[in-house]
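Ticket opened by: R.M.
Priority: normal
Category: complex prediction / small molecule

The reporter submitted a protein together with zinc ion and asked that the result be attached to this ticket for the collaborator who will pick it up next week. Submitted input follows.
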Amino acid sequence: MTIRHHPPADLLTSYAAGTLDLGDHIAVATHLSACPRCQAMAAALEHVGGAVLTGLPPMPMTDGALARVTARLDEPDRHSDHGNKDRAHPGHQDLGRTNRAPLDGVPGLPGFMRRYMAAPWIWVAPGVRMRPIQLPAASDSRVFLLQSRPRTKMLEHTHTGTELTCVLTGGFRHAAGDFGPGDFDWGDAEVRHDVTVAPSETCLCLVAMRGEVRLRGFWGALIQPFIRL
Ligand SMILES: [Zn+2]
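Result attached by the on-call engineer:
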């Protein structure tokens, strides 16, 4: 596997610091599971972060700090599935319990995702379908598998938020180059995507997306109401 496209440095730094949104974290972790170079960089960044913390001079605690921390121990864990009652959170996809299946068997995903559940495939556009993934905690980005037939030409589109994509099988091409298994693609509202899927095999990607897809041009405007992504 030759990996040509990696996450930008600031994304990798946030990953190493543990400050990424859960969906974005999963997308970067998927790339790292295939990329020794980024694994080494993330490990180095974690080491630097630890060294910086170790080197800081000790600070005296403020009055009542210990009592406040102790009181919070009894609060529900807002990051756990059980403690999270906020089902209306924009990124938390409650897929229900029917027809869900574990992701075990999907190639290229990191090991911790095998216990995640995913909904059945949903039609998106001709030749394109998606499978939403149930995350164990709230996330601002939605995570899903996106599968496209060989040679599929996506309508030119932009995003209202960020889109992090990791190729699992097959590949695609757009203005930034050719993307294959293990490659990582990052886009935001400033990037126009004019994507063509590679001719050889079905393209399967893991995507973490915020906001919505906005199709461009006459045909895009015409079918935008029918696109479910
Ligand atoms: Zn990499």
